[in-house]
Amino acid sequence: MINLHFSSSAFIPGVFLLAGVSVAVVIQVYDFRKDFSYLQTLKKAEVNYEVKWGQLLLEQSALTQPSRLEQAAIKHLNMHSPSQDELIIVKP
């Protein structure tokens, strides 16, 4: 038979050490979960920003099409293509 003999002088500090390490592990796990949750929030925000960026690029390409620019120039600035009489050719 194995005879286990514990001395109280080593047992009490061991219990406190085990309790301290246990509390430290719980705190670390809590911090990890909190940071992981924040990371997931940031990833969702990143996806939303990428979607918005794509929408803005599409809008930019639609607004800068030559036909749209020509229509805006005619409608808002009263511009028109010059006739033959309005053309002036400058030679060097």
In this structure, how is the largest beta sheet organized?
none
Topology order in helix (H) and strand (E) letters: HH
Structural class by secondary-structure content = mainly alpha
Mean pLDDT: 89
Beta-strand percent range: under 5%
Q: Tell me how many strands there are.
A: 0
Number of helices in the DSSP assignment: 2
Distance between the termini: 115 Å
Rg result: 37 Å
* Helical percentage: over 70%
- Label the overall shape: rod-shaped
Low-confidence stretches: none
Topology:
Layout (H helix, E strand, L loop, with lengths): L7 H56 L2 H12 L15
Describe the structure.
The chain is an all-alpha fold and 92 residues long. The chain has helices spanning 8-63, 66-77. The radius of gyration is 37 Å and the shape is rod-shaped.
Q: Can you give me a brief rundown of this structure?
A:
With 92 residues, the protein is an all-alpha fold. Helices cover 74% and strands 0% of the residues.
Descriptors:
92 residues, mainly alpha, 2 helices, 0% strand, rod-shaped
